[in-house]
Design a protein that fits this description.
16-stranded antiparallel sheet, Ubiquitin-like (UB roll), single chain, 13 helices, globular, alpha+beta, 41% strand, five-stranded mixed sheet, 768 residues
Length: 768
């Protein structure tokens, strides 16, 4: 009941905030309450008009409450007081309606429409005075008919450039029948510039390209001509001359290893004289004292080769590939014009390329202490991490971590117990594929890496003790900037469960959980692909998709059938341990939508399915799905939901797992003040079992009834953005509980709320 009253108090507070918005509006002034754009051009969305409106209303949360304006109004008249200053700084001043800015917005909207081919568009603004000193501004746009492209022709003063452009005309952004838009023309200038700079024209820029449009045809059509001018050289104030754009080739490539920008600026020639030089495979390597990185690594991370035409795209790729090595703090690639070599058979001009590499610190370590809170269960932990980014002078990344954590938890009977977890991991990543043959072109194109890792984890709970030892070899590569791949041809897990509490074993014996708590071995092969549109430090809508598929036990099964026989219980063992067989696949889809500078929406859909077969009847415990907790359906404790409508009130511990997981999450996020952010979320999901013979009652996935077993939770959250990480607190409240044995499983209207219908989660980072 206290939680319900808390939410009611928040709603009432927000209502009072909205009523206080005109508190400090001067006489004869009006608060700009709302801006509306009415547009009849179907080809242009309303979001595209926003940048051209010079005056926008105060920001809102929940689409209605001007919280930041309320903070500003909360400040007293005495602005010398520290608290009032702070309120004014974190709040937002009231936006007072300005007719001059409205007129400017009208002009800007009209220019925007013209730039999009609507040359007969009209824009009118209307100010509608509302009560309580508020004004609503409406911009009405009558677009008219959009002009379209008819014929598009290309002409260059240099015949060689003209032929080159015509060879690539199929990639033009200007097509017959498309809209006559300024944005498309700017994009075409950039496309042509990029294309020419990738074909040797080092000095070419888009200023040499202009357009000539002929709209005299009538019928709202335009003939378009794209003209590329020659280069211009200014001889004097009154005289200049033009000449053909020259092509450039790469003469020599120099790697300045361990480049120090400070010394280069201060010592100049004396600094550069300190460098020794190596010449390997046609490249120059300059270093002081000794080379700290194997030159072969730099060669395989470089696209720029002596003798080739200058290509701007290869410069960008080289920059990205060298940056991925993580051993350089700063990478600068510059070119200087050079004399043609004596053997040159071409009229092309020449460039020397200098790759100046400023090294980063190779070694680092950190000791972290952390507090843990999962669904109200408090604990503490510590982690030691060590990293070396250049272990064998080949940009190999080595890392070692060791961690200990303890947590006090409560079982279903509200009895307190403690858990202990100790673990360590060693990992080394090589900037190449471990192959019996060289694949340098693959290295340059896909930035591949090979990772080797081993780990050990010890877990102690009142109901069982478990140890997990694993090792794996993985191959990582990127097919483009947004898409990465991970192939693990071999992963090995040894899971030993030395002790199980007799009472706990009595509860699970004969159930679907029994085999999850026996010793087992997993040898697996997996592949995952990640597509991520997110850009660092940019508030831009993005998609994130992660798909994974894994199989286990089939190779071991072939070996076991060939060299061993089944045990008395009808299964095979390797080294005296039963091995698992299964196939599993998961997909995680997320979409982040930024509504404005303080409001955003985040959506997530997760589906995971695992099917056990053959030598083990159930998925191994560490591969099984669970729901509830800080990153799942937050109104339930970790492992406290499902499978399906299954409920075992006699069980002491939350330990529900399944073979299928379905989850949908939506979260509205809004900035409040200082480092504080708020969130309102809705979570839907559950787990299910897949095999009828070992499924608990109500836990089996069935197409006709699985939606009736979905749990629904909602709640509010607070986030503290500390720049380096986000500390999160979420309060979840159950709305729909599949355990309810009634047709109506919605708690409101079905039963009274209790303490168990709320969950409190502390975590680091956003949930998705």
């Amino acid at each position: 009941m206290k939680q319900v009253l808390f939410y009611i108090a928040i709603v009432i507070s927000l209502f009072l905030i909205s009523c206080n918005s005109v508190k400090h509006i001067p006489e004869n002034e009006y608060l700009l309450d709302k801006v509306v754009v009415s547009n009849n051009a179907r080809t242009i969305s309303k979001e595209r008009f926003i940048p051209y409106i010079k005056q926008k209303e105060n920001v809102k949360i929940f689409g209605a409450f001007k919280f930041h304006l309320w903070l500003h109004n909360l400040a007293g008249k005495d602005t010398s007081k520290g608290f009032n200053k702070w309120l004014l700084r974190i709040g937002e001043e009231p936006v007072l309606y300005d007719s001059f800015l409205a007129d400017q917005s009208t002009e800007q909207l009209k220019i925007f429409m013209n730039n999009n081919g609507y040359f007969h568009a009209t824009v009118k603004d209307t100010a509608i005075v509302k009560r309580k000193k508020k004004v609503k501004v409406r911009y009405e746009i009558d677009a008219g008919k959009q002009f379209q492209l008819n014929e598009v022709t290309y002409k260059a003063e240099d015949p060689e450039i003209e032929n080159l452009i015509l060879e690539d005309v199929d990639n033009s952004l200007l097509k017959k029948g498309s809209a006559f838009e300024v944005g498309a023309h700017d994009g075409e200038r950039e496309r042509i510039t990029r294309y020419l700079r990738n074909n040797g024209y080092y000095n070419f820029s888009k200023e040499f390209i202009y357009f000539r449009a002929d709209s005299s045809l009538g019928n709202y059509t335009v003939n378009d001509s794209i003209i590329i001018k020659n280069a211009k050289e200014e001889l004097s104030r009154s005289k200049d001359t033009t000449y053909l754009h020259p092509k450039f080739r790469i003469k020599d490539v120099y790697f300045r290893m361990g480049f120090d920008t400070h010394q280069a600026l201060n010592e100049k020639e004396a600094y550069f004289a300190k460098f020794d030089t190596m010449f390997i495979d046609g490249y120059h390597f300059l270093y002081i004292d000794k080379a700290k990185v194997n030159p072969e690594v730099l060669i395989s991370s470089n696209y720029i080769k002596p003798g080739q035409l200058f290509q701007a795209s290869l410069v960008d790729k080289t920059q990205a590939l060298l940056s991925s090595l993580r051993i350089y703090r700063f990478i600068n690639i510059r070119f200087e014009e050079a004399l043609a070599p004596d053997t040159s058979q071409t009229e092309d001009r020449w460039l020397d390329c200098y790759l100046q590499l400023v090294p980063a610190k190779y070694q680092s370590y950190s000791i972290d202490l952390e507090g843990i809170n999962s669904s109200g269960n408090l604990g503490a932990g510590g982690n030691l991490k060590y990293q070396h980014k250049n272990l064998f002078k080949g940009a190999e990344e080595f890392s070692f971590s060791f961690g200990v954590s303890m947590q006090n938890q409560y079982n279903r009977k509200k009895e307190q117990f403690s858990t202990l977890e100790v673990g360590g991991e060693s990992k080394i990543t090589f900037p190449k594929f471990w192959m019996p043959f060289k694949v340098e072109e693959f290295r340059q194109k896909y930035n591949p890496k090979t990772s080797l890792s081993v780990a050990y984890n010890y877990q102690r709970r009142p109901d069982y003790t478990r140890t997990i030892a694993n090792g794996k070899i993985s191959y990582l590569w990127k097919s483009d900037q947004k898409t990465s791949h991970l192939l693990t041809p071999l992963g090995i897990n040894f899971v030993l469960i030395p002790t199980v509490d007799p009472d706990f074993w009595e509860d699970i014996e004969g159930t679907y959980l029994e085999y999850s708590y026996r010793d087992h071995l997993i040898t697996s092969t997996s592949y995952s692909i990640v597509y991520n549109q997110q850009e660092v430090n940019r508030r831009k809508n993005f998609w994130y998709i992660n798909w994974n598929v894994e199989e286990a036990g089939n190779v071991l099964n072939l070996a076991a059938k060939s060299f061993t026989s089944k045990t008395e219980d009808g299964y095979y063992e390797i080294l005296g341990i039963r091995y698992a067989q299964y196939v599993q696949s998961n997909i995680d889809i997320r979409y982040h939508h930024y509504l404005n500078r303080i409001n955003s929406m985040a959506y997530r859909f997760y589906l995971g399915v695992g099917y056990p077969y053959g030598n083990l009847d159930v998925l191994p415990f560490e591969k099984r799905y669970f729901s509830g907790g800080a990153n799942s359906v937050r109104a339930w404790p970790v492992r406290g939901l499902g499978p399906g409508s299954y409920d075992d009130p006699e069980s002491n511990y939350y330990n529900q797992t399944g073979d299928i997981k379905i989850e949908l999450n939506a979260e509205y996020r809004f900035k409040l003040f200082w480092i504080l952010e708020g969130a309102f979320f809705v979570d839907v999901g559950n787990i299910y079992t897949i095999r009828k013979d070992i499924s608990p009652e109500g836990g089996l996935f069935e197409f006709g009834t699985f939606t009736d077993k979905l749990a629904v939770g909602t709640g509010l959250g607070m986030r503290f953005d500390l720049k380096y990480f986000v500390f999160r607190m979420d309060t979840g409240m159950k709305l729909r509980d599949p355990v309810i044995q009634k047709k109506n499983k919605w708690i409101p209207g079905s039963r009274a709320y209790g303490w168990d219908d709320f969950a409190f989660n502390f975590a680091i980072g956003y949930p998705f």
